[in-house]
Amino acid sequence: MTDLQDSKLTEFEDNDQKPVGFGRMLRKEDARLLRGRGRFVDDVQLPGMLHLAILRSPFAHATIVSIDTSAAEASPGVKAVVTGETLKGLGLAWMPTLSNDVQAVLATDKVRFQGQEVAFVVAEDRYQARDALELIDVEYDVLDPVIDVRKALEPDAPIIRTDLEGKTNNHVFDWETGDEEETARVFAEADVIVQEDIVYPRVHPAPMETCGSVADFDPVEGKLRLWSTTQAPHAHRTLYAIVAGIPEHKIQVIAPDIGGGFGNKVPIYPGYVHSIVGSIVTGKPVKWMEDRSENLISTGFARDYIMRAEIAATNDGKILAIRTNVLADHGAFNGTAAPVKYPAGFFGVFTGSYDLKAAHCKMTAVYTNKAPGGVAYACSFRITEAVYLVERIVDALAYQLEMDPAELRLKNFIQPEQFPYTTKTGWVYDSGDYEPTMRLAMEMAGYDELRREQAEKRARGELMGIGISFFTEAVGAGPRKNMDILGLGMADGCELRIHPTGKAVVRLSVKTQGQGHETTFAQIIAEELGIPPADIDVLHGDTDNTPFGLGTYGSRSTPVSGAAAALVARKVRDKAKLIASAMLEVSVADLDWVKGAFQVKGDPGRSVTIQDIAFRTHGAGDLPDGVEGGLEAQICYNPSNLTYPHGAYICVVDIDPGTAEVKVRRFIAVDDCGTRINPMIIEGQVHGGLADGVGMALMEMISFDSDGNCLGASLMDYLIPTALETPDWETGYTVTPSPHHPIGAKGIGESATVGSPPAIVNAVVDALKPFGVRHADMPLTPSRVWDAMRGQATPPI
Amino acid sequence: MQVTMTVNGTEYTREIEGRMLLVHFLRDVLGLTGTHWGCDTSNCGVCVVWLDGEPVKSCTVLAAMAGGHEVRTVEGLANGAELDPIQEGFRQCHGLQCGFCTPGMLMTCRALLDKNPDPTEGEIREAISGQICRCTGYSSIVRSVRWTAVHEAEARNAKEEVAQA
Questions:
Q1: Residue A156 to residues A168, A326, A376, Cα–Cα distance (Å)
Q2: Residue B90 belongs to domain spanning
Q3: Which one of B28, B97, B140, B147 makes the best mutation probe of the A interface by having the most chain A beta carbons within 10 Å?
Q4: 48-67 in chain B: CB under 8 A from chain A
Q5: Same structural domain for residues A559 and A678?
Q6: Domain that holds residue A77
Q7: Tell me, what CATH number does B29's domain have?
Q8: HSE-CB for A352 with a 13 A CA cutoff
Q9: Domain 2Fe-2S ferredoxin-type, which positions (chain B) (predicted)?
Q10: Tell me, what's the pLDDT at A374?
Q11: Pair B42, B101 in one domain
C-alpha cells in the first residue's frame, strides 16, 4: 500500500476557488449532509403515518393456491392487509414496465421469482407490520423454475409468462445490428480470428439507501403526494397517472435527498404502488422502506449477458471486424429501463474506439424465474457490457498475435480527422482524440517500466499483471426523434428566474443522487450570467415545482439538462441585453458582454451589471417597447445527438500464487469528458465508478441455485468493495469538447463503471499468461483465479 | 420497558419495546435522522454512532442495551455553526457524494483521530473497512481524514506556540 502523500493535500489549501463559472468549487449540498440534516425518504415523518411491509415469495416459480390473511388482520396495530385479489378488484394487479411489458403489482395467479410481492400489510409501526407478515398463510403449488438462461428456450422449458395471452415459450425479443453478410465476408478474408465466450454476470447496484416511499393521499383535494426514491420524478408521475388513474395534476412526486441510485431507482417498483394503495385504503400517510435483502432480491439488477465474441484481424494487427451473439437474461418481467427503440440499450456501440470494416450483433432475450431489471448500475444503457466485450476480445487478440495490448489499440483507433465518425452499427461519434488520452495514461503509469518489472517478476515466478482498457461512451439520451421511454421524449426542461436583487433560482427536471447538481448547475448559470454560484438556488426533485423532463440516469444530466441550463441562461442574457441597451441608451449592437455585465463598446466605464438589470426589470420606469417586465426564461432542450466521452485506463495487479488472491496495486484513469465544469466533482464521479469496477471484476455477483434461490441476498453474500480492496486512484484528463453541446461538456457519471472492469480483468488475465490463460470470467474471486491457474474453465453461472 | 440514555449530552427517558434497535430509537423515537440504516447485517456501517466513545453499529445494538450509557451521533459533532474538523475535512476533500454513508463515516473517522491523531493511509483504510461507500471509491475519504489530521496538528502547534509565548 502506498502511503498517501500529504503533498497531495496542499493543493487543496486554496480549495474553494469560488469560481464564477467553471472550476473547483466545494459543494453547496454538503452543508446539510455533513450535519446529519439531509432529508432522505425514510426521514419523512408525517402526522398519523402508518408503515407498510411486503410479504414476498419464498419460491422462484409457484402457483398461488390460497392466501389466508385473517390472522394478520387481527394482529395488533394492523390497519390493512392487501393481496393480489384485492388489487385485481381495483384493476391494479398489473402495471406497465418501462419496456412495454407488464409486471405484477401483487401476484395473483402465480409467483415468478423469489422475492416477488405477494401481499402487503399496513400497520401502526414498522415492527407490527413485520410481525403481521408472519401470520399470512399462503399455500403454494411449486413449479419447476427456469434458472439456467441457456435452457430457457428449450421446447420442454416451463412457460413463465402464462399471463400473456398465447405465450408458448420464454422468448422476449430478438435484436440485431450491423451487417451480417458483410461481416461474414470480412471474417472470411481475415488472417486471424479469435473467439471467446464471455459472461457478464448479474450484479446489483445496491445503493446504500434502499428503495422506499411515503404516500399521502388527500381524499378531499384528491391529491396524492409521494415522496420516493426516484431518479426520474417526472416520468414516474406520468406513469402513476396512467397506472392509478389519478389525474396527473393531482400527483406530486417528491424525490428528496437520494442515497445513491446508480440506475437502481429508475424503475417503478411494486412497493411504491403499494404505499399509494395503502394510503388510499387507510386514509393515512403510509411509509414503505424495503430492507437490504428485499433490495438485492427484487429490485433492478444489472447485466446478465452471455456473449460469444469474435474478432477478425490481419497478422500485423489491423482489426477488421467484430461480431457477437448474445443471450440476455431479462428475468421474469421485461423491466428494462431503456429507450423503447433500444431493447438492448446502447449495446450497439460494441465496436468500441476502433476503425472497423464490419460489425454485427445478434441477440436473443429470454424470461427466467429471476427478478426483473437489466439496465442499472451506472451502465449507460448496456455500454458496460459492450465495452467489456470489445476490450476483452481485443486483449485476447493481442494475446494471440503476441502483440502488446497498448500497441494493438494505438494501431486501430479512429483518427481525430475521422470525426464525426459513423460506426458500422450506425452510431455517430461526435468527437474524439484517442491517442493523446492513451499516451497520457501510459506516461502516468510508467508503462514501459511496468512491463520491465513484470518481466523480471515473471522470471522469478511472481504473478503481476498490467491491464488496459480504452472506451468510448454514448451518453445523454437523447434526441426525441428516436429516443423515448413509453412515448415520453427524452428531453429536459429548465426554468431560470432572476430575482429583483440579482439572486437566482434555477429549476431542473433532473435529480441528483449524489452527483452534486446543486453545485454544478449553479456553476453553469454562473458561467453564463456572471452571478456567483452562492447566489443561485438549484431546485430539483419536486414535480410541482420543476419543469418536466426525464430525470438522471445514463450520464444524461450534464449532456441534456446541463445544455438546457446553459441555453436558458443565454435566453435571459438576450433579454437582459435589450434592457441594458435602454439603460445605457446605446443600441444593442454597441454592447459587449463581459461576464456579469454589459458594457458600451469602446467605453468600458459605462456598464450595467446583471444585478442592475434584474432590478430594473422589476422596478419603476419604462422598459423598451415590446419587452415584458421580469427576468426569467424557460426551455425544453432536445439534444441533437448523444455525447461521446472516452478514456484510457491502466490497472496493475499482483496475484498471490499461494492463495490466488488478486490485489489491485495501482489504477490509472485518464478521462475525457469534454469541457470540465467542476474538476473536483468529476474526479469524485470517476473514483466511485472505479470502485464499482473492482467490485464487478473481483467480488460482486448475484447468482442462484438450481431451485432459484438468490445467493446474493445480503451484504454478507453480495460482496461490495471496501477501503481495503481499493487502491488510491490516479486520475488524469484530456479535453475534447462536444461540438454540439452548448458548453462542450459530455457525461462523466458512468465512464469509470463502464471502463474499469475490462482493465482489471485484462490485468488478471495478463498476470496469468504464464499459465496459458487467455480469458477468465468475472468475478475473479480467489477460487476462480485458482481454477484458471490450473487450466479449468470458469464454472457456468 | 423504560430506557434512559444520554444522547449528544441530553438525557432522554422513553417507553419502548424491548426489541427496539438503537438505530430506530434514535431515528423514530428521538427524531435524530442523521443516523441512517442500510443493511441489517452489520456490513454497511451507515448506522455507526458512538456508545461511550466507541463506534458501534446501531442496527445491531438494542436500545435497551444503551440504557444508562452515552450515545453520540452525527448531530452532536458540530459545535453550533462551527463544523467539527472532520466534517470540514470531508467538505474540503469531497469525502461525500450522496451523503448516506457520511454520518457513519464521520463518527468512525472522528474516533480514529481521537485515538491516533496522525494515522497512515493504511490505518485509515483499516478503520473504515467495516463501512461501505458506493459513491466515493474511498480515496477522497482517506484524504479527508489526512486533511483533518494535518489541520488539527497545525492548530495544536499554534496553540502550543501561543502558550509558550
A1: 10, 22, 32
A2: 85-164
A3: B97
A4: none
A5: no
A6: 41-143+210-258+265-298
A7: 3.10.20.30
A8: 32
A9: 1-77
A10: 87
A11: no
